Amino acid sequence: MKQMNKGNFLDRIGIPSVLSWSYLGVMIFMIGNGVEVGWLSPYLEDNGLSIQQVSTLFGMYGFTVALSSWFAGVFFETIGAKRTMLIGSIFCVVGMTGFVSLGLRDMSYPFLLITQAIKGFGYPLFVYALATWIAYRSPAEKVSTAYGWFWFVFSGGMSVIATFYSSWAINQLGHINTLWTTLIFIISGSFFALVINRDNIKPQGKQSTKENIKGVLKGITILKERPKLLLNCIIRIINTISQFAFPVYLPMYMISQGFTTTQWLSIWGTAFTSNIFFVLIWGIVGDKIGCKRTIIWCGGVLTGVSSLLLFFAPQYIGANYPILLLLSIIWGAGLGGYVPLDAMSANTVEKDKGAVMSVLNLGTGLSVLAGPALVGLLINSIGASGVTWVIAGLYFAGAILTNFLDEPEKAPKNTTQSEMLIKTKEENAL
Predict the structure, then answer these.
(1) Per the domain annotation, does 9 fall within a domain?
(2) 189 vs 409, residue with greater confidence
(3) Cα 212 from chain centroid (whole Å)
(4) Which residue spans traverse the membrane (predicted)?
């Protein structure tokens, strides 16, 4: 009875109860993947790398994240949910071990590039497998809320808990030992998601090698069948481009404006504390007032304006810590305004959801690549302020593009995506 009540409560608030342990696992797992985000760039520059080398390093990571993100959904369909997540976990452990022991120990740039690339293959396979899983397990009228909770645990782990933990750990343990502790979070998160979680989705029957390859390639061929999905992908790239561009140059900029590293980490962590709550709010809002309206105003416009304010405010008000905290809250809220995009994409098809989510995941992964690449390409020619204007302009352009997205039709209440597909097949059979 207690388990049933627990399940009912989680289902009521939008979390598919059968996936509750996987949600927790992803949060813990992403702590391990986010510990370095707020301070790795200045640390590498202090130890001899140029900003262009750092941008290339982050870009290499972004490239493999994008590649892994693209195929996470179709791997889910081809080899199953838990196998996909396990492979991602192994990539993370191997990549982080090599990054610290082979790359940072001697500041070997080739080893840093190679191991950073290996790390990049890891977390998308782990977390975006859950994103596809949600598309099959969540009732259609609560999909946007379910993805709100997904991004809550994703950002809560990677950008909130990890940031505040690292601000403590680097002072108490040092930079290198702090990175070693990431393995504890990665392995613990994997245990919750893969062992304690009893739900699973396995491939239908035993497939031939040819069928498996065809399934993997579905992440590419779906774009030919549904070309408008490319627009969803572009908007997802825009969504988090500032999240991955800012860490390349904003820490050094904020320090030059009078903030300490600890203050900057606190500002960054506060932004994503705001973000994890607003992804829940915007997920519910998207279910109520429509996905497109939420993405345009709460996502594109709000993030574009707040990106400019966050960067330029110190030039006019100095190192005003409380004001920057407030602006970071607004910026974090704007990033969360895109959360209904997942629900819109998942609900546009009744089958091949893994392929559709792979396209969306590709956009998330490409933003990890595009953010640092944008900085590396433009910062010498137009400076940090020019890069920020370009980023803001992308958000405003994305708000306009959102008008051209297709919104799915309303589904009956309490109908999961899997049940909708079964019902459609039965109707077609008749």
Answers:
(1) no
(2) 189
(3) 26
(4) 21-40, 60-79, 86-104, 110-136, 148-170, 176-196, 229-250, 262-282, 294-313, 319-339, 359-380, 386-405
What tokens appear for 94 in the block?
Answer: 């191997």
Paired strand residues for 416: 139
- What does the buried/exposed string (b/e) look like for 56-72 if buried means 16 or more CB atoms within 10 Å of the residue's CB? bbbbbbbbbbbbbbbbb
The answer to whether 66 and 366 are in contact (CB under 8 A) is: yes
What residues make up the domain containing 30? Answer: 17-199+209-421
pLDDT in tens, 278-317: 988 998 898 788 889 999 999 999 999 999 999 999 999 9
403: domain CATH number?
1.20.1250.20
Q: How far is CA 153 from CA 32, 267, 359, in A?
A: 13, 19, 21
CB 278 within 8 A of CB 336: yes
Contact 295, 337 (CB under 8 A): yes
- pLDDT tens figures, 222-254: 888 888 889 999 999 999 999 999 988 998 899
Q: Quick one: pLDDT band at residue 409, thresholds 50, 70, 90?
A: low
Label residues 220-231 b or e (16+ Cβ within 10 Å = b): eebbeebeebeb
Q: Is 301 exposed, middle or buried (0-12, 13-18, 19+ CB in 10 A)?
A: middle
Assigned token pair, 283: 């997920």
Is 122 inside any structural domain? yes
The H or E element spanning position 3 is helix 2-12
